[in-house]
Amino acid sequence: MNFARFWAVIRKEYRQFFRDRVTVAVIFAIPAVQLCLFGYAINFEVKHLPTAVLDYANCAESRAVVQDFVNSQYFDVRRYVSSYRELTALIDKGVVKAGIVFPPDMKRRLKAGKAATAGVVFDASDPMTAGSAISSAQAIGMYRAIELLGGGRRLREMPFEIRTRAWYNPQMLSANFMVPGLIGVIMQLVTMMLTAMAIVRERERGTLEQLLVSPVNRGELILGKLIPYVVLGYADITLALLIARYVFGVTIAGNLFALYVLAFLFLASTLGFGLLISTVAKTQQQAMQMSFFVFLPSIMLSGFFFPVAAMPDVIRPISYLIPLTYFLEICRGVILKAQSFEHLLRQTAVLAAMGAAILGLAVARMRKRLS
Questions:
Q1: Torsion of CA 24, 28, 30, 34, to 10 degrees
Q2: What's the sign of the alpha-carbon dihedral 271, 276, 277, 283?
Q3: Number of domain units in the chain
Q4: What is the three-class DSSP state of 255?
Q5: Whole-angstrom Cα distance, residue 358 to residue 362?
């Protein structure tokens, strides 16, 4: 082997690689950014779970139990409510994830030497979060029972017990949490990547210039490129829902019309990301790399795998800038909780604003590139 020729090939390959600034940026940015983000964000321990309290007992004992919940740092008491209906509405809307209920006879039972109970209900649409919270609640109940026994009270049985109930996903099945979330993940991956690669493919083959000199104007060209992927996105939703229902046995509790309508807002953002990528990428390989650069942080930081509530304060704001975060809440809310438009106003407003901004910016950049 001739070392000079061998070394010349190596130098040529490095020069060719470093001339492509987009590829260099993607190659080095992806591992650095993802390592920092995921290293901070991935956390299975859920703390400060938003909680509401319904205290019919209104006594020193119930207030002590609430303080135990707060001191554990696993629960963050946000609301005190006056009725079970109000508590149910807060959990249905996703304002709180847990509710502590004290019965009116709690003080009387403790004084009479009888066992007292408190109930804790959880939003179990996320079984990972609910499982951790249930274990914490039961441990708090055991701690309070030991405290009462240590106070010298003469009780014939354990003086206090916390009983838990899981709503929306009583069996705590992971499929009921993961499968609805996969609808949004698949939609983003397919529509964003295909949109980005379709535009770049036209440019690589030289057919984009042919389209520009044809009678088709730029607005018709952009719409003609986007609408097929809107149809494909809805086809993916339908296929995913059929598989969820008939393969994984996920019961669809809500109105699918609401899901299909709100999916359009999410598609606006994913198609916008695809168009934005196509204005930067020069090759299909670059378009694919940049798509994954957007896609991987989306699935990791949106609450698909790891609860947003468990992320550090530094990382959590990034989650709220990701459209997939809100669409996952919509998918799980409609499918598991039977939520309606009324319950999803916040997610709808944010998705509409994000979709309009991202798609508007992408179309503006695309028009400039085509000029």
A1: -170
A2: positive
A3: 2
A4: coil
A5: 6
Task: Say which CATH number the domain at 130 has.
Answer: 3.40.1710.10
Q: Domain range for residue 357?
A: 173-370
The torsion angles phi and psi of 136, rounded to 5 degrees, stand at -65, -45
15 in a structural domain: no
Q: 192 and 296 in contact (C-beta within 8 Å)?
A: no
Q: Report how far apart, in Å, the C-alpha atoms of 208 and of each of 201, 274, 290 are.
A: 9, 17, 21
Q: Tell me if 308 is assigned to some domain.
A: yes
**Rounded CA gap, 281 and 279, in Å?**
6
What per-residue confidence (pLDDT) applies to 32? 67
How do residues 235-256 score in pLDDT, each as one tens digit? Answer: 989 998 999 889 888 888 888 9
For residue 28, give both structure tokens: 């080095």
**DSSP per position, 326-353:** HHHHHHHHHHHH---GGGGHHHHHHHHH
Task: Convert the pLDDT of each residue in 96-130 to its tens digit.
Answer: 999 999 999 888 888 877 788 899 999 988 887 88
Which residue blocks in the chain are alpha helix, DSSP H? 3-19, 21-41, 60-71, 84-93, 106-111, 127-150, 174-205, 207-212, 218-246, 256-280, 284-301, 316-319, 323-337, 345-370
